[in-house]
Amino acid sequence: MRRLALILLLLLPLPAAAVQPDEVLADPVLEARARDISAGLRCPVCRNESIDESNADIARTLRLIVRERLVAGDSDEEVVDFVTDRFGEYVLLRPDTSGANLVLWIGGPAMLLLAGGIGLATIRRRASATEEEGLSAEEEARLAELLKE
C-alpha cells in the first residue's frame, strides 16, 4: 500500500520552477509579485514555457530584470510593459485581446462557424436536390426495360 501511495505521489504533476536561490528576493511580498509576473511571461527561447519554469539563460536574465524593476518600485503593469517593449508581445503567455490581436482571437472561431455554415448549406442543398429529382418518363421506361432482361 505504501508503495502504491509513493508511486501515485511521484506521478502527480508538480510545478517546475527554475528560479535559483540567489534570485529570490528577501521581501516575500515582492517575491510573490515577481513569481506572478514571471509566470505570465514566455521564455523567448523555450516554446510555451514561462520564464519562471525555464532554465534558459535569457529566462534567468528576464527573471532578474523583473525583480530589479519591482525593487525599483515599478507596478506589475509597468514591469510587464518594460519587458514587452524590449521583446515584443511574443513574451506574453496571454496576449491582449485588443487591437490587431482581436482579429486573431476572433478569427479561429469565426472560421469554424463559417466552415460549419458552408458545410451545412451544402448538405441541405444536396439533400433537397436528390429529393426533388425523380426519374423522367424516359428513364423509368429504360429502367423497366433493363429489369425485364
Automatic annotation (TrEMBL):
**Family membership noted in the UniProt record:** Belongs to the CcmH/CycL/Ccl2/NrfF family.
Q: Which GO terms describe its biological process?
A: cytochrome complex assembly
Molecular function GO terms recorded: metal ion binding
> What residue stretches are annotated with the CcmH/CycL/Ccl2/NrfF N-terminal domain?
7-147
Q: Does the keyword Oxidoreductase apply?
A: no
Q: Transmembrane residues, as ranges?
A: 102-123
For this record, an example GO cellular component is: plasma membrane
Q: What role is this protein assigned?
A: Possible subunit of a heme lyase.
Task: For this UniProt record, give its keywords in alphabetical order, as a comma-separated list.
Answer: Cytochrome c-type biogenesis, Heme, Iron, Membrane, Metal-binding, Signal, Transmembrane, Transmembrane helix
Give one Pfam family, short name only: CcmH
Q: What is this protein called?
A: Cytochrome c-type biogenesis protein
Q: Which domain of life is it from?
A: Bacteria
Which residues, if any, are the signal sequence? 1-18
